[in-house]
Every structure is written in C-alpha cells, then in structure tokens.
Amino acid sequence: MYEEGKGVIGAVKPNTPIPAWHKIALERIEEGEEVVKFGYVVGVAVTVVEKGALVHVTNVLLDPTYDFRQMVRQGLVLGIAPVRVERGEVLRLGVNVRPLHPALRGLPPRSRVGMAACTIAENGTIRLGNIVEPPPRLRRNERYVRLVRDFYRVLRAGLIEFSRVEVG
Amino acid sequence: MPSTLKAYYREPRKVFGVRNHVLVLPTTLCVNRLAETIWEEFRDERWGENGENRVVLARHNSGCCHVGFDLEIAFQTLLGIASHPNVHGVLLVSLGCGQLCKRPLAPGEGKDQNLAAFKLYDRLVKKGARVRWVNVQEPFHGSSDGFERAVELGRKFVREMIEEAQAAKRIEAPLKRFVIGIGNGASDPTSGLFANPAVGYVADELVKEGVSIVFSQTTEVLGSEEYLLGKVADETVARKLRRLLETVYALKDALSEYLGESDPTPGNIASGISTLAEKSLGSILKVGFDPAVKISDVLPYAHPVPRGGGLYFMDTPGEDVLAITGMVAGGAHAVIFTTGLGTPVGSVVSPVVKVTANKETFSRLSGIIDVYLPVEELFSSGTSLKELAMKELYPAILEVLSGERLTKSELNWQIDFDIRGYWLRA
C-alpha cells in the first residue's frame, strides 16, 4: 500500500485472485457502503466485500443516489411548488413557486417564471423540463437543441445510411 | 524555480512565442495539395539556436460547404492557428470560391459577398499577424499556368518570411505570459494512477508561477461532475459547465441508439475500471490538487484562453488530435499529454510533451514518448509522486518551452491538425 506523502504504508494480502491493475479492498466494505478511490466516491458496494477481495463490477455499482446526470440536472431546478399546480397554470414567484435557482433570487414578487407544461404535485420540483416559456436567462441552448433534433430527424428519415463494414 | 524563460516577442501582437515557425495554411481542403507543394520546398529549412523552428503545414479537411455553426468553428480554429504566438508569419492558401477563400472583388461587388474570408483576413491583420495570401483562381496576367504561378508566389512569400524569422532572437519572458494545455489519450491503468496525478502536481506548480492551464476532452470528464463542480470559481462558471454537460449527455443518449456502447466500455472493465466515476476521475486528476486553483471559465472550441494564470476548461471532443488542435488554436504554447499505451500525436505549431508511467511502453516506443516517470522509485526509494513529477517532468517542460529541447512530436514531423465538425457538409 502506497500513500502520497507517506510512502509505503503497509500491505494487504489478497484472498482472491486479483488481475494486474484491478482494485483490492483495503478493509471490509459493508453492503451499501461507499467505495472510495482517489479520495472520491466511485460507487457503492452492493454486497459485503471482505478485506483483500477483488473490488469490481460484481460487487460495486454506481448507486442511484450518485446519479451524476441527476446532479447535473439539479442545476436546472428552478424551485419547489408549495401547492399543486395544474397544467397551463401560470407560475409566479411567491404564489406557487418557492425559488431555489440563483437566477430567480432578487426578482420582484409575483414575477412570472413560466407556465406549467404538466400537473406539478404539491412540493414537486419546478424544472426546465416541466414548464414552458421559462425566463429568457434560463432557456437552454435552443439553437443547439434544434440543430441536434433536425440532424437526427434526417438520420431517422433514412436519407443517410451509415456504411456498415462486414467483419470476418 | 525560474519564473522566466527565453522566448520570441512579437511586437505588434504583444505576445511571446516559444517557437518561431512559418505556417502554410490552406483555407479549404481543395488546396491541400497546393499548400503541400509550396511547403515541400522548405522541408529541410531550420533556424533558431537548436534548429527548433521551421516551415510547418496545417493540412485539414474543413473550410468548404459547411452548414450550421461548423463554419464558425472552422473560422475560429483557422484564426487561432494563423495568429498563434508560436507562428512568425502565415501563408494562407486558398482556392477562391470556398467559404473562407479570399478572392478579388469584381467591380460593384461588396465585401459581404465573401464575408467570412474578409473577416478572417481583417481579424488577422487587426491582430498584427504577418499574413500573406495566395489564391488559385486569381487571374495571373500574362501566364497560362496560373497554378504554377500560385506555387511560385507562395514560395516567394514563404522565403521572405523565413528571412525575417531567422533574424529574430529569444528574449527573457515572464512565465505568466504563457498558456499550457493538458490532455491524455491511449490511456491504460498507469495513466490514472501515476501519469495524470503527476501532471496534476506540475499543473499546480505552473499555475502558481502564473501560467494559464487549459484542459479539455468533454466526453472524458462525464462522471467526474462531483469533482468539477467542486472546483469552479463561481456560480456563472458552474452554470456554463452544467449546461455543457447536460448537452453532451443528451447527445450521448441520442447517439447510444446508434452506437450501442456502454460506459465504462468492455475494454475498460477488463482492465479494472468498475464505474464511470472511477474512469473519469483517473483522467481528471491531471488538472491538479491545489484547492486554491479553481476553474476560471468554460471556453468553446478553439476560443482564446486568457493569459495571466488560472485554470480553464475547453469543450472539445475526446479524440486526441481534435482536442489538442482546439487547445492550441486557443493559444496553448505547448501541450502536456499523458499516455499509457503510447501515441505519436503532436501539433502543427506547438510542441507536445508526451509522458508515460508505463515502463514497457516507454522501452518499446521511446521514439515517440518524451518523458518516462520511473514510478518504481515510489516503492523502492521512498520518493513521492510529487517529487518525481517535479524532478522528471517540470524541468523537461521548461526546456521544451525555451527551445533547448525538441519534443519527439517535433522530431518526427508530427504536424497534426484537424478541425472539429458536427454536421453533414452541404
């Protein structure tokens, strides 16, 4: 075992075959416990991993709570609806929107945030995905999204065929 | 540690370059062969104290029939590479009818007929770049072989620029006037464990000296959001980063239908990677460990990287040549590139220092790799990785920047250059 700044700090005896460059558990990892490498969580143990055992896809997974896409999307959560909001209802700050996104802070009360695109449950999140006409400064990169959509529409229409290379 | 190095000063542009190349740049792919013909004449010309400067050719497959914002990207990349601090002068070779080809105006014709080309020329002149232009379709009076005339004219311009470049001398330049790119490719387990963290320590030290560091390869940072979002300077940068990552995830979702590829890939899993987070963290550690160093901005492809220190992220594909081209067009004077399996990659105007921690790879491919980190010393003599990086890698970078050492990419004529493209060509 090597630790930066301390040098070699000990050894762990493997109790299963460990292929070169694969990971070994330095201590017993309980089921549901975070697996830490490089000082960061890289996954969650889905079963008990004994000290000295191989740590790999069989016993460690990315837990849903570490869904990084979710983490990215959280940045686009605008706020919470303290009351149930019906489809088509206008969302206003302080009325049916409790702001979370920094871009909404500092706006005057009753400012229009958008219109609900679907029913939002009480205490549900208001995000760019479930409202229409969001404030301009929160709109996605519309131009990019449109270009991507048009591009894949062309692909699906079968106007372009990927040349497939036969192997063997 | 010295905080200055010897570099070429470009008076009109107020920038320092670590090389003094003359660049031959086709503005469209149609004239790649013409540009090559002009360049071949000067292949053996070298100048500078260690013969580190020469005539370089930037072949590419862009510059015509672009739709969407591909034209903007091609424009920005050509502008960045033509006005690069390492370039003494540039010869633009064009056909005449491409989107970025300058051509003579007919009577009554306005500049708006060929806006992108004029914008390119005007911007280069405004920046103070030394620029010459050869155009195939230009009517060369009194000659039936205009193509041959274009070759002659191009060679005449290049010869003039070489003579000017040969007269230039290196002067003392503060380190805070430089930009260094970092990347990784053809990785193996030694990259994530040793080479990338070692580059991280060097990057920390360089930022402390006032060098701007730029890293890229957006598809390879997916999964390390926890690390990245914890390293941004302010909420504006965080918002830019989230927006970019969300777009890339969306694109990846759309593409997975066609590619059917999982991440981590079966190859990654076979070599010991269990999750996407683990994969990306191995790659992202090259950015450095100093908590005081924050990501100051997220830049689009090939956009200028601010000088004067700090850490910047540029949106580029994960592919090595495209990523390096983006950072170099953004003004990177040199690139530090880690590899595990070995790659010959280089860049047209900037030296690329390749680093590996895989002893076997280095012994097999020492002709394309510059620095080997002897990681066995970590276990035998008690040196730390940081000490190793500062001993083996840091001085090598400074030697390359000051022209005392040529990288393997330069010695091998690895003048790689290509422009990112998104869409189908019209």
Explain this structure.
- The complex is a heterodimer of chains A (168) and B (426).
- With 168 residues, chain A is of the alpha+beta class.
- Chain A folds into 2 domains: 2-66, Archaeosine Trna-guanine Transglycosylase, Chain: A, domain 4, CATH 2.30.130.110; 75-138, no CATH class.
- In chain A, 13% of the residues lie in helices and 23% in strands.
- Chain A contains 2 helices and 13 strands.
- Chain A has helices spanning 68-74, 142-156, and strands at 2-3, 7-8, 23-24, 34-37, 40-45, 54-55, 60-61, 77-80, 90-92, 98-99, 112-116, 125-127, 131-132.
- In chain A, the strands form 5 sheets. Chain A has a 3-stranded antiparallel sheet with strand order 4-5-7, with no helix packed on it. Chain A has a 3-stranded antiparallel sheet with strand order 10-8-12, with no helix packed on it.
- In chain A, strand 1 (2-3) and strand 2 form a beta hairpin.
- Chain A is elongated, with a radius of gyration of 25 Å.
- Residues 160-168 of chain A have low confidence and may be disordered.
- Chain B is an alpha/beta fold and 426 residues long.
- Chain B has 2 domains: 4-171, Rossmann fold (3-Layer(aba) Sandwich), CATH 3.40.50; 178-411, no CATH class.
- In chain B, the strands form 3 sheets. Chain B has a 7-stranded parallel sheet with strand order 10-11-9-8-12-13-14, sandwiched between helices. A 4-stranded parallel sheet of chain B has the order 4-3-5-6, sandwiched between helices. Chain B has a 3-stranded antiparallel sheet with strand order 2-1-7, with no helix packed on it.
- In chain B, helix 5 links the parallel strand 8 and strand 9.
- The longest helix of chain B is centred in the middle third of the chain and has 25 residues, at 235-259.
- The radius of gyration of chain B is 22 Å and the shape is globular.
- The N and C termini of chain B lie far apart (53 Å).
- In chain B, 54% of the residues are buried.
- The model of chain B has no long low-confidence stretch (mean pLDDT 90).
- The chains are: A alpha+beta (168), B alpha/beta (426).
- The interface between A and B is large, with 44 and 47 residues.
